[in-house]
Each structure stands twice: as structure tokens, then as C-alpha cells.
Amino acid sequence: MNIRKILSFAFASALLFNVACSDDENMEFETPKGAYEKGILISNEGGYSTPTAEISFVSSDLVTMESKVYGKNNNNEILGNVLQTIGFSGDNAYLVSNVPNKVDVVNRYTFKKQATVTANLEGPRYIAFSGNQYYVTNNNFSNVKKLNVYNKDGNAFVKSINFDRAAEKVVEANGNIVVQTDGITYDSNYNELPTGYTITIVAPSTNAVAKTVTLPSTGIIRDLVSYNGDAYVLVSGTSDSYIYKINASSGAYTTTTLTGVAKAQRLRIDSNKFYFINSSNKIYAMDITSTTTPSTPLVTTTGYVYGFDVIDGRVFVSDASFTGDSKAYVYSASNGSLLKTLTTGIGTNGFYKN
Fold first, then answer.
1. Per residue in 260-308, pLDDT tens?
2. 30 pLDDT above the threshold of 90
3. In angstroms, what is the C-alpha Rg of the chain?
4. In terms of pTM, does the model score above 0.85?
5. Cα 129 to the chain's mean position, in Å?
6. Which of 267, 264, 262 is nearest to 238 (CA)?
7. Domains identified in the chain and CATH numbers
8. Which site among 78, 106, 139, 246 is 20 to 30 Å from 54 CA-CA?
9. What is the pLDDT of residues 145-164, one digit of tens each?
10. What angle do CA 134, 140, 142 make, to 5 degrees?
């Protein structure tokens, strides 16, 4: 055999061996964090007078479903009566229960409980995080309307910030804490009325009010979300509805008018698109920069939408039952086709990417 061919073959083999070894040495293997990683957590509110709140889980491919996640991983402990919302920080999930007044801190991937927080909670509603602190709104729809501040290390209570009319949704935007401090009240005939039109910005460095943003006095503030460092407020009117984009540092805002959309109820943002629901439980989608309101709904639901979110191109809605299992429906965010029907828990009210 030609000596040059032998040497060339030997060199190529050695090079291939070295590359293969190098790739193996640099390869990183991801260790699973727990059974509930890379899926959707579903919050089940439970019955107001019965302790039936719980968590369901569905895998990202919508194939694997598990119910009563909290109880199964905490010695069958009862979560509570009214699970209001879930927030995330690091490896922990914070389960905010309106009844009883508590926040349960669990590992978000194993659901093992780490702590229970009760200090100064009176009708806890929603939660947000900034730095080493977390913020919980409290609203008993009577005399308590406040934002509680806690340290994440040890969950120690720091202080409360009181508001005049409401303390509802709360989000973090560009490092600041943005609070919905107005919303809905009712007259003697149970007709909806606005309490006012304020959104309050709290500076985490001082835990004091930095700015109060007063929006136009039209409609009722319905929702507050955070997206790409800005806060977005949904206000519903009797003829049109409005989305206000608020700079969380300056308090300046711009307006998107949802022409012809009366009494819009919910707002979510995913992949630079708004998703909202009208009073007839029809779900609409529009580009975040568009000035033209869509005339055709993405999804027309068959029941009342109680829980609603849009996660990674899929729309999640629940038709909640408070006497038995609820139903949840998953739709494509691109064409509105039904992807999956899920059986969840009592009073399904939220969906969260884990």
C-alpha cells in the first residue's frame, strides 16, 4: 500500500478521535429539577366555604396530566379554600390564598413546601417580585387596601403601603412595582361603577410611592400585565375599550383604542400580540403595534371564561365549576383551533408556565 495513503488515514483517524473526545468532554447534561419542570401549572381556586383549592399540572406536550399536586407532595396537606394566584421567583412558587390569609412557598419543580407566610395578610390577592423583595396586594373590599412588602430571605414582613380605593393586580416592570389602585365598585342595584383611574408605581429602593398615574376617566380598569419592561392596563368602556402602555419609570403612557370592543375583560400579551376577551367571551388577537381592532374573533368559547392565559403560542381558558371538576381548553394562538380539552380541579382560575 502507498505509504502516503497509510499516513493520511492514520492522521484522519487521530483527528476524528480527538474531536469526538473533545465534544464529549464539553457536553453538558442537564439534570432534571423535578417532576413539574417544563409544563403548565393550573391553579384551582376551590370553593369559598370548602377547602378544595389545589394545583393541576399538564406537560408541555399536553400529554401527561396530574391532579392534586400540592397535596400529593406535602403529606396530603390541604391547601385552602380560595387559591387566588401563583407567582414565581427563582426555584420557588408562591401560592397566594385569599382564604385563609396565607402565602405558601413551594419548590416550583417538586412542589415540596418551603414555608408558609401569614404575617399582616388580610385578603391577599396578587404578588410580584423585585430584587430580594416580594409584594402582595391585600384587598378585603371594605377597609383593607394595601400592598405588603416581604424579604425573600426568611419571608420577613417589611412594611405595608396603604391606598385609598383598591389594591388589586400588581406587576414588576423595569425593576419597579406597579399596582392597580382603582377598579370596580357597585351601586345598590349591583351595576358596575369605576372607583377611579389610578395606577401607582412603587420604588423598591425606598418601598414608597414614586408616582401616581391618573388615566383618562373613561370605562373601568379591568387588568394589569407586564411585558418587556412596561406595564399595560386594560380599561373597558361601554362602546370601546383601551390598552394603556405605561413607562414604569416616568409614568408616561400611550393609548391603543379597541374600537367597537365593549367591556373587554382580560388582557394577555405573547410574542408581541395582545389577546383580550370581550363581554361575549370571544377571544381576539392583534399585533401590539397595530391601530386596527380585529373584527373577527380568534376563538369563540362555549362557556364563561374564568381562567385565561396565553403561553408560548397557545391560548388556555377555563370554564370553571365550583361544585366539581372544571374544564380547560387549549387553542392554537395562530388559528384558534382546539388543541386539547383538559379536566382540571374545582374553580380553575389560572395557567402558569413552569
1. 999 999 999 999 999 999 989 999 999 999 999 999 999 999 888 999 9
2. no
3. 24
4. yes
5. 12
6. 262
7. 34-305 (2.130.10.10)
8. 139
9. 999 999 999 999 999 999 99
10. 135
